Amino acid sequence: MVAIGIPLKIEELRRWFAATPGVVVAYSGGVDSTLVAAVAGRALGDRALAVTAVSPSLPPGQLAEARRTAVELGVRHRTVRTRETEKPQYLANGLDRCYHCRVELYEVLGRVAEEEGLPVVVSGANLDDLDDFRPGLRAATEYGVRHPLVEVRFSKRDVRAAAREIGIPTWDKPASACLSSRIAVGEGISVEELTRVGRAEGLLVDLGFRQCRARVHGDLVRVEVELEELSRLAQPGVRDRVVEGLRALGYRFVTLDLEGFRSGSMNPEEGSS
Predict the structure, then answer these.
(1) Residue 31 — φ and ψ, nearest 5°?
(2) Domain count, the chain
C-alpha cells in the first residue's frame, strides 16, 4: 500500500529537477541517492549524471551494485576517484572526519559538473539527516551543494516508500556508510584497517546477516546485528565461525553488542552510520 501523499511528493521532486538545467548526483548507491538519481534521470534525461566516488572507504560490493542499479534505472553513471584516505586530517579520524571526506568529494564533483556543463551538484541528504551528527553538511553548504530531498521535505521513511513506489529494486536495501565510520573516533585510519573492516563485515554477510556492522575499538571488534538475529549469532556453530574468522583477521577480542544494530552508534552522542 502506498503511503498517503507519496505520489504527490514524487511529482514535486520531479518538478524540482525539471526546473534545473542539469545536475550531478552524489550517488553512493544507497536508497537516498538512488531515489535522487532515478527521479533526476526521469526529469532530465542525459542532463542528469550519477557519480559514484571510489576509494578504500567504499564498502565491498557497493560499487558493483550501484552500477547495476543505475543501468536498471536507465540513469547515466560514471565513477571518479577520491583521495580522502591520503589526507592527514581524514586519517586522524577526529570529529570532523566526515567534513574532510565531503570536501574532497565535492571538490571532485565540482570538477565533473564543470566538465559536463551541469550547473548543480546534489546530494541524497533527507530531513532525518538534519537531526543527526553530519559534519559533511557543512562542507555541502560551503560548496553550494543542494539537497532536493530536504527541500521537498522527504523523511527517511518517505524515501523508502517513494523508492518502492517508482520501482527502485534496492528500495529496502540496508543502511550503509563508509568503512571509516566503523572505527572509533580518535583512532587513526589506514587503508589496511579499512580493508580489514570490509572483510569482517563480508564474513557476517556471508553468514546471512543482512544488516550488520563490525565496529573497531583498537584490537577489539564489536559486532552489531539486528535484534532478532542476536540469538542466531550466539548459536555455537555460527558464533564459532564469527570468532574464528574475526580473530584470523587480527582482532584480539570479539564482542557481541546486545543492543543490536543501530545506525549512528559511534557518533559523538552514540556513534556513525
Answers:
(1) -60, -40
(2) 2
